[in-house]
């Protein structure tokens, strides 16, 4: 009888277990399987997890966990241009077109920092919506709006105007020239109301949050900011349509990033096979 594969075979090739014996349950016809645990010392997978002390030793000995002499710059490579208002339904999503793509540049003493020396996923960017004409934050909207036929003000709710994934973690991706960088790719951003808006992006480092900090939860410093160009959110009947995926979007799609696009062949996601 052939031996049965076991996940610990790589550690103990001489102790391969035999095929388990099958027994019929007396109360039913179901089959019960008895598996024999591997003999000897089983490797403790928990030893792979980093403790708080280990994480502190791996980070820079600063309050934020990153070197104080690093400089940060956000470059909005792909700007939002237009969108269709998504309304106030829970499941309604009308992605901004095109979605913002932001590249992070980190330098130390005017020299680029090697991005292979840290996990870019500890960096995150928060998107905040602003009204272009008044230059005021527009992330929250009152629904129904004032002046509508409602019995009392208690029926009004403060709701998010910018919906979707407003927080995006950094990823190592190659651009169309094959250059590796830290990118923040928004894949799900919609606006509930029509108007002219712009987005403000704030960069933060979350690698030393919570219990990793010596003093527990601490304020998160904003490391860099960037502001997008104004874009228009249209009512449904006036929306001119989504913009075709850019070469950069196609490049990211080939690297496993899902980019929302115009529905083609009953598919709402762009895939590399759609390239002409």
Automatic annotation (TrEMBL):
Domain Velvet: 67-262
InterPro entries linked: Velvet, Velvet_dom, Velvet_dom_sf
Region annotated Disordered, chain positions: 1-43, 256-276
Main localization of the protein described in the UniProt heading: nucleus
Matching PROSITE patterns: VELVET (PS51821)
Keyword line: Nucleus, Transcription, Transcription regulation
Any one GO CC term of the record: nucleus
Cell location: Nucleus
UniProt protein name: Velvet domain-containing protein
Native source species: Diversispora epigaea
């Amino acid at each position: 009888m052939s031996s049965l594969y076991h996940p610990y075979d790589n550690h103990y090739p001489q102790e391969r277990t035999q095929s388990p014996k099958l027994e019929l349950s007396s109360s039913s016809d179901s089959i019960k399987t008895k598996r024999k645990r591997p003999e000897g010392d089983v490797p403790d997978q928990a030893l792979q997890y980093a403790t708080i002390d280990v994480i502190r030793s791996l980070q820079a000995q600063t309050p934020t966990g990153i070197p104080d002499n690093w400089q940060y710059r956000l470059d909005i490579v792909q700007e939002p241009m237009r969108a269709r208002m998504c309304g106030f339904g829970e499941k309604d999503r009308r992605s901004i077109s095109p979605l913002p793509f932001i590249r992070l540049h980190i330098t130390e003493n005017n020299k680029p920092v090697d991005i292979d020396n840290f996990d870019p996923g500890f960096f995150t960017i928060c998107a905040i919506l602003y009204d272009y004409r008044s230059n005021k934050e527009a992330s929250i909207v009152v629904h129904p709006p004032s002046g509508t036929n409602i019995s009392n003000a208690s029926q009004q709710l403060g709701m998010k105007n910018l919906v979707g994934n407003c927080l995006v973690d950094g990823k190592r991706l190659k651009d169309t020239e094959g250059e590796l960088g830290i990118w923040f790719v928004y894949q799900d951003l919609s606006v509930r109301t029509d108007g002219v808006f712009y987005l403000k992006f704030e960069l933060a480092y979350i690698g030393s949050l919570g219990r990793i900090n010596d003093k527990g939860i601490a304020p998160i410093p904003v490391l860099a900011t960037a502001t997008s160009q104004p874009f228009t959110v249209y009512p449904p009947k006036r929306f001119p349509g989504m913009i075709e995926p850019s070469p950069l979007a196609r490049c990211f799609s080939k690297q496993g990033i899902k980019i929302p696009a115009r529905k083609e062949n009953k598919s709402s996601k762009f895939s590399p096979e759609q390239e002409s």
